[in-house]
Specification:
Elements lengths: L1 H5 L4 H8 L3 H9 L7 H11 L3 H8 L6 H7 L1
Helix pairs in contact: 2-3, 2-4
């Protein structure tokens, strides 16, 4: 999802704008960091012009309900 969102921009450019290391961004993109910190996700969302609510909804498993999400918090 992140690779698609960054389009033709390089990983290095996006990482720098988000204040992340290129290594961290690459690990997130390939799934080596499966649950990045909220502020990391927020920084990437801002740079890539992604809405956090939409991003969260798209990344939650389809069978997860709002009640399930509150219980998991």
């Amino acid at each position: 999802m992140l690779r698609a969102a960054r389009g033709p921009r390089s990983a290095a450019e996006v990482a720098a704008e988000a204040g992340l290391s290129i290594d961290t961004l690459r690990k997130i993109e390939r799934g080596a960091i499966s649950s990045p910190a909220f502020f990391t996700v927020a920084a990437l969302a801002e740079v890539l012009k992604l809405d956090l609510a939409t991003l969260a909804r798209d990344l939650l498993p389809a069978e997860t309900t709002p009640t399930d999400r509150r219980a998991a918090s």
